[in-house]
Amino acid sequence: MGSKGILKNSGSSRVPPHGPSKPPTAPTSAPQVVFGRRTESGRFISYSRDDLDSEISSVDFQDYHVHIPMTPDNQPMEEDGTKADEQYVSSSLFTGGFNSVTRAHVMDKQGPDSDMGRSGPKGSICMVEGCNSKIMRNGRGEDILPCECDFKICVDCFTDAVKGGGGVCPGCKELYKHTEWEEVLSNSSNELTRALSLPHGPGGKMERRLSLVKQGTMNNQSGEFDHNRWLFETKGTYGYGNAIWPDDNVDDDGRNGVPGHPKELMSKPWRPLTRKLQIPAAVISPYRLLVLIRLVALAFFLMWRIKHQNDDAIWLWGMSIVCELWFALSWVLDQLPKLCPINRATDLSVLKEKFETPTPSNPTGKSDLPGIDIFVSTADPEKEPVLVTANTILSILAVDYPVDKLACYVSDDGGALLTFEAMAEAASFANFWVPFCRKHDIEPRNPDSYFNLKRDPFKNKVKADFVKDRRRIKREYDEFKVRVNGLPDSIRRRSDAYHAREEIQAMNLQREKIKAGGDEQFEPVKIPKATWMADSTHWPGTWIHSSQDHARGDHAGIIQVMLKPPSDMPMYGNIEKSPLDFSEVDTRLPMLVYMSREKRPGYDHNKKAGAMNALVRASAIMSNGPFILNLDCDHYVYNSKAFREGMCFMMDRGGDRLCYVQFPQRFEGIDPSDRYANHNTVFFDINMRALDGLQGPVYVGTGCLFRRIALYGFDPPRSKDHSPGFCGCCLPRGRKASASNANPEETMALRMGDFDGDSMNLATFPKKFGNSSFLIDSIPVAEFQGRPLADHPSVKNGRPPGALTIPREILDASIVAEAISVVSCWYEEKTEWGTRVGWIYGSVTEDVVTGYRMHNRGWKSVYCVTQRDAFRGTAPINLTDRLHQVLRWATGSVEIFFSRNNALFASSKMKVLQRIAYLNVGIYPFTSIFLIVYCFLPALSLFSGQFIVQTLNVTFLTYLLIITVTLCLLAMLEIKWSGIALEEWWRNEQFWLIGGTSAHLAAVMQGLLKVVAGIEISFTLTSKQVGDDIDDEFAELYEVKWTSLMIPPLTIIMVNLVAIAVGFSRTIYSTIPQWSKLLGGVFFSFWVLAHLYPFAKGLMGRRGRTPTIVYVWAGLVSITISLLWIAINPPSSAANQQLGGSFSFP
């Protein structure tokens, strides 16, 4: 039997090997991870029960354990134990949850050197050909390298090189500086001491600098001096190279509380990473002037309308006045935030120069960029095809960003084995696809999109083997697609076979019992039909045939490291073991993790927001990237440099006050005419650019790069020094006189609005973030690593250059087991997750609410429009699916309006125009009530022979002309500074009316039902299935799916058509024709019908195949309204006498 270790409770922290001293950030009652003695092979021998009782006696959830099985190999690890630990973690499936055992199930047996087709630096192995001896390490655990070229060599080979090779390094062929091994050891020790020890100076000043930190708390979990933590908790300032301390003749606080800086740093020219591009004055000035003119014209027009009533049809006049007043208010709320649009540009060359170029502080030129954790969420493999998700994952793994700084997490909220095995197939195919993309600079790096490009794939390709490589990769991808498409049938057949075997075994066992017992009666065997994995074990997630503990809302938490964390040094392909020549290509792959959070009956899992929060916690423990990028499963990386462009904003001066960088959403597979405004360019290219000039764009759910500590609910740095102001560009931004300049920013970086002190008390964190000390300890680390580079005195709250060039920590079993605990269903109880921390719960549009909370705390956001689209996704082109999508968005807005997230209750930290923009987000669905009434007014006017005004006089027509012309001119200027097409603007106007008369009205009703009656709203996922018609790419566009949302706009169309016919007949056969009233009613009726034209065309289907139900409903509703009108206002006999011929009013 293999020995087992035991992990007690989720809120645990590892005990350093040098002693059980507890870090100062850990809560006093936090339980600990306790492993027993470690054997030579890397296994753990558990403590006795008596030893454990004292540890868990005061801990909640005492029945929580981790059983760690035997490692895959039986060879001693010694110095290579950490590598085998990584192999063990990446080869094991971790499961667990509430009141259940957390297990690490070994998926397959692989040795530690199983990376086939790769070669490169081999850890601690001598690089001299023919020698596999281990090289020595210093006290910090780093390799001792006698030459500056970092050629790894053991003691024996070094001695041979000195004595027999003339003292020449076998790597760079240069002479060694030190020819005695003792001198090499001494030099390594001196460098270690200089790197880790604090500078010596006058004792008083040194003691003051370290007054915040105790000497015993500066070690990390491995017992070494934690330099980053020392920086975070002291007053040291940094510039070139190692720590630069204030001059002895300068006070610690310096002038105005700023420490002294070296002369070379003060004189260094500073280059920004981003630029703000203002809209030309020739465009924006007339735009603002027209807004003012139209605002004044609307005010005078409404005053004139109120004073001049239509006594002949006072009811018609009253309805029109109410609607026009609301439309004016809605237009003002929509237009005011558009006064300050801006554009932005990034400079990737400066980013490379600052973070990836050799400098005195970074001699090797290793990347100093911060890490990014990418979240991909999926929930249903039937509506969200796994092949689409797999292509998204492949595009992420191939991005142009330091490999060791990336970690991709796939959240499968359905817990389906199909998704799990598809991700495993994607991880396998990535070994070919990712190096191919790097070698030939492929764009886009989604294989499906790349191989379906309609342009010449050989353009600008200069390498001679490109054609051969592309042909081989295309064949590999075709085989990959066949394997993924065959997974559902493969899983089903496999499960049926194993189930049949279980039944046979159970029946044989029953027969044996009957023979042994004698008279027992034979009963049919009932065995739950399980879903089986490829290694002949039960899938711990959701089964195809649901069973207890294996249903969609009832299954254990699952974490599988599909691709282990890469090494910090490049690894190049081995041409002898790989079918393609990747000998000059870095073949490392980013870490890939599959996760399915635990779900149990009786718990509110909070849909997508809950899944995202589980990802935040798990990633904080496993990789803790200071930045988080979330993508929908159908949104892939179209621009491989998009991550770098987003990082330009985060790492620029003042970037520490940015909570997120939002990228625009771009879509593929849309019909050329964009019938239902699926591209939504007016919102993404006009509204979002305008908000970028204020406090920042809203969060739209995908394609967003977050700062992790902003998601944790902290306030931005220097929040007390900034006043919100009116907007970001029209008026100068004010600053409050700072009374806290004397306080170091390092102690003020983690601050929440409900805490008035200079720094947060870490002892309160368990109440906010839960009882995982791993998670709590990761918070200040993420804050420090997310700071901009302190390469100039003007950069406040920065970090030293070269601080992020060190390798990441080893991912061991205890870390993954802790990640399992934080994705359990009970972890969020009595914490602030979902209320203040992470994605906010309580709305179907959790994205808007989450972004609003950040802006409400004073954070800013940025809109990053790249020259090449950053991400691309799919959108529903079917009318019914599109209406349901808009319904979900509008319902979320109604929920926001009736909640505490209403912008009317925003804090003083939010700019005025930003508040107006968020207020419009909650109000716009209510426009549907007045819009539907206004769409029926032309028909009512034609039916009654009256109009909204007494007569069409010159004053009314002048006002109408001014309002219409200014609206058109504003549209033309918006098109000018946003770059969209006129047709896109017109499609948006059409669908505004279609959605306003259908989905928005239903959203208001559902929102009111939830508020008044407490009826919850449930939505289905937007289907991302592609059309089945191979001959027609847009076959889904013509498919008509009946929904009740179609009734209002269909009724409006039929009623207005009937009203036009009635109006013409009345006027033609009338003794005294009232042409002015007819023209007014017909003009507005045509205005309504022109906006509803795409809706009517959608109902026609392909070649006029309209469902009969459409005509039935339209006829019934039209007849009902006509009869209702006759009953309310029957025609008089005098009116009938005016009609000539045989015409009579019906």
UniProtKB/TrEMBL annotation:
Region listing for Disordered, in residue ranges: 1-37
Residues binding UDP-alpha-D-glucose: S377, K383, E384, D413, K607
Entry's Gene Ontology cellular component terms: Golgi membrane
Compositionally biased tracts (Pro residues): 17-26
Pfam families reported in the protein's UniProt record: Cellulose_synt, zf-RING_4
Gene Ontology MF annotations: cellulose synthase (UDP-forming) activity; mannan synthase activity
Subcellular location: Golgi apparatus membrane
This protein's name: Cellulose synthase-like protein D3
Naturally occurring in which organism (per UniProt): Aegilops tauschii subsp. strangulata (Goatgrass)
